[in-house]
Amino acid sequence: MKKREVRYETYKTEDAEIIIVAYGTIARIALNAIKHARQAGMKVGLIRPISLWPFPEKPFVETRENAKVYISIEMSAGQMIDDIKLAVNGYAPVEFFGRTGGVVPTQEEIYLKLMTVAGVC
User: What is the rounded average pLDDT of the residues 11-34?
Assistant: First the structure.
C-alpha cells in the first residue's frame, strides 16, 4: 500500500527552512500564507498529504536536511503531529498550530505563526 496508495503534493520545499504540513481546506489557506512569506524573503514550503494513511514519509525524508522546523497546521487537536515526528525522525522540531470546533485559521494567523517560528516577531 505504501507504494501504490500514498499521495501528497509539495510546494517550494527544495530550499525551505520552514515547512508547513497541512491537508484539506487549511492547506489552501496555508499556501497563500506561504506565498506571502516567500515574497518577504522567507524560505517556506508546503507538504500537503492527500492520503493520511499510509502517511507520506518520502517528502519528509527529502526535506529534512534543509528544514529547520516543521509546522503542523490542522483544524483539529493535532492528530497528525506524531506521524510528522516519525517521518522527520528527529532531524528538526515539529510545531503545532491548530483550531478546533470548526474555527478555520486565517491566512494572517498562519503568516504570524511563520513569523514567530522564524524569530521575526
Answer: 97
